[in-house]
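1st attempt posting a full record on here, be nice pls
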Amino acid sequence: MALMKRKSKEAAGSAADAADLERLRRDLDAAEAERVDAVRARQDLEERRDDVLASEDVAQLEAHEIAVAAVERRVAVAEIRCTRLAGEIETAEAEAEQARRRAAYAQAQEALAEGRRVLEQEYLPAAMALVEILNRARTLRAAIAAANEVLPDGSDPLPTMLEPVFNGQHYPEVRGLTKEEVYFVNRKTGLRAGPFDCPELHSESHKWERRTRTIDLPLPLHPAVEHRSVLEYVNLPGITGPDSYLWSAPFWGRPRFSNSDRTEEQRRVL
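the predicted structure (as tokens):
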């Protein structure tokens, strides 16, 4: 409740400051317009002075000088007002900027407290629940691997990939994996050279015809990009220190530690 009242007061204060700043800007625009008009009137009077002197009329000259003095006062007052209002606007803008920064800083303080609360009260329980899931999955996968070691007759090994979808990358199912094979055929019999024939010897070369053919290579047994199981790539750091881990995956993409460099704390799984 107190926080809501404080925010309401801050919002009201910001609105009032914005209204005052807008009023000052309008006043400055009006003062600047008055100054420009006064300067223009002074220039007009200065241009008419020679004509007034040429009339040799003292009364007309006195009236002209009175008008010049009056317009000089207008210019002076307008310039003073413009200077004052410009200073007030600069001060008000600086104060408004500081108020904005104070509000942003207050929001950042609240975000800091909320972020720490989220990590402590929400991240840790959720991470521990995920650790329990990963432990169960790892135990089940170990049971599958153990059964594959002693398969009954006529049974195929069971896959140890627990994820429903393969997330690696297979080699393309195209006839792109080929090689050129060289072989020799006997010119008389048409039979291919055997392991004990020597078709490339100079004395035997006239008996054999050299041929080539393109053969398709079998697809590799392993995929181009291995499947990345969550059991190897999920890593859950703790929040109590640099070496605190709730679950330290052995691979997790680009490991910060090699397996030999990982400490016992980093190997720990709660």
